[in-house]
Each structure stands twice: as C-alpha cells, then as structure tokens.
Design goal:
With 196 residues, this protein is α+β, with helices and mostly antiparallel strands. The chain has seven helices and seven strands, in the order E-H-H-H-E-E-H-H-E-H-E-H-E-E. The protein has a single domain, classed as 3-Layer(aba) Sandwich (Aminopeptidase). Helix content is 37%, strand content 23%. The protein starts with a strand and ends with a strand. The chain binds coenzyme A.
C-alpha cells in the first residue's frame, strides 16, 4: 500500500469480512484536528474538542470536500489538507451552516476572522495538519503541492493561511514550501503564496 495523497472520502470504511465500520476519513480528520490543535501540539483536554473541529475541520468536509485531501500510510490516515478556494464564499457558507456547538453569533465572528485575512490577490486559504508520526517525511510538502496545483488549475490567483506565532515549526515549513510572510497581527502571522 505504501504512502499516498488522495482526496478525502466521505464514505464510512467497513471491514469487508466482519462488516464493522473502521475509522472513516471523517473520524480521522476530526481527531487529527484536535491532536494538532494547540499551535501544532495536542489540544486534548484544553476544552470542548468541537471548539476546534467545528471551526477548522468539519465545515471544510461538509462544504468543500473537493478541496480536502488526506495523507495515508499503509492504509492509515496520518494527516490532511483542507482548503477553501474562495474565502468570501466559504465564510458565507460557514455562517449559514448549522453547528452543534457554534451559535449564529459565534459563526459570524469566525466568518469575520476568516475574511480579515483574505483579499483579492489571496482569496483561498488552507489548513494542513499531520500526526507526529506523519511529520518530517515530505507529506506536508506533497499535500501543499497537490492543493496548489488544483487551485492553480481552477484559476485561483493566490492562497493564504494564518499561523499561531508559537508554532515555529509551521512557520519554517511554510517558508520552505514557497509561502512568504505578509503581515503579523492579533490574528496571527499571515503567510501567502501567489499561484500565477
Ligand atoms: C507543519 C507540517 C504541516 C509540516 O509537514 P511535514 O510533512 O512535517 O513537512 P515536510 O516533511 O513536507 O517538510 C517540507 C520542508 O519544510 C521543512 N520543515 C518541516 N517542518 C519543519 C520544522 N518543524 N522546522 C523546520 N523546518 C521544517 C522541512 O525541513 C522541509 O524542508 P526541505 O524541503 O527544504 O528539506 C507538519 O509538521 C504538521 O502537521 N505539524 C503539526 C500541525 C501544524 O503545526 N500544522 C500547521 C498549522 S498552521
């Protein structure tokens, strides 16, 4: 089986012999979101995990799964990249999506946060996260390359993302894969990469 990057699959995975449901891509993505959710480290125990997954993972799987990829090794999902090609459109859909945790006010605030980092040059944004055992072996670079190739083919001019200032590893990573720092503010460090 080896290693591969593939599109997120919304179908539950079941064991062909017993019929029991194995870990689905969705469960894997939500769990990795929490296990990397504290500036790249495990956020388990730091509050309701849905505070993270309802902002940074589940909406992307529900609203824009054509831009969701997973990194798999020997059949196990070790990481993901979730992107929104047009942040303005995604923020509007995020706000309208009912959430088990976030009420309309909370969704509106998060949508406004997303919009603050986007502009016409850099309309897309992404999140990439890998479990520790998936880090440092090129998955992050391959996920970013897959995503940027797809977005460029769709005519998207640029991509941005926001990094927690405490996350020095991610800052080094984005610089190595062609992103440049655009600004720092209360939201974090905004990196961008033009695609044309
Ligand atoms: C940040 C992350 C996505 C990088 O993915 P990765 O698979 O570990 O990185 P890669 O192996 O593809 O490395 C690509 C390049 O970035 C560099 N790099 C990656 N992580 C680095 C780190 N922590 N410190 C310094 N350089 C780093 C690599 O050396 C490599 O450089 P090279 O191509 O010049 O040799 C991954 O480590 C991760 O998910 N971390 C935890 C969650 C997280 O912080 N996500 C980002 C939130 S904004």
């Amino acid at each position: 089986m080896g290693e591969r990057i593939r599109l997120y699959d919304p179908a539950p995975v079941s064991d062909s012999v017993s019929g029991s449901v194995l870990e689905s891509d969705r469960q894997a993505v939500l769990s990795i979101c929490v296990l990397t959710g504290d500036a790249g480290r495990d956020a388990t125990g730091l509050g309701d995990p849905r505070e993270l997954t309802e902002r940074y993972a589940a909406p992307y799987l529900d609203l824009e799964r054509e831009h969701a990829w997973v990194a798999e090794r020997e059949g196990r999902v070790l990481g993901y990249l979730l992107a929104a090609a047009d942040t303005a459109s995604f923020a509007a859909r995020f706000e309208a999506r009912p959430s088990p945790l976030l009420n309309a006010d909370a969704r509106g605030r998060h949508a406004a946060d997303m919009l603050r980092s986007a502009d016409e040059e850099y309309p897309a944004h992404l999140h990439v996260d890998l479990l520790p055992e998936g880090q440092g072996s090129g998955f992050g670079r391959r996920l970013v390359e897959h995503c940027l190739e797809q977005l460029a083919a769709e005519g998207v001019p640029g991509v941005h993302l926001v990094v927690d200032p405490r996350n020095e590893g991610a800052q080094a990573f984005y610089a190595r894969v062609g992103f440049t720092e655009r600004r720092r503010d209360a939201d974090g460090i905004v990196f961008g990469r033009l695609l044309s």
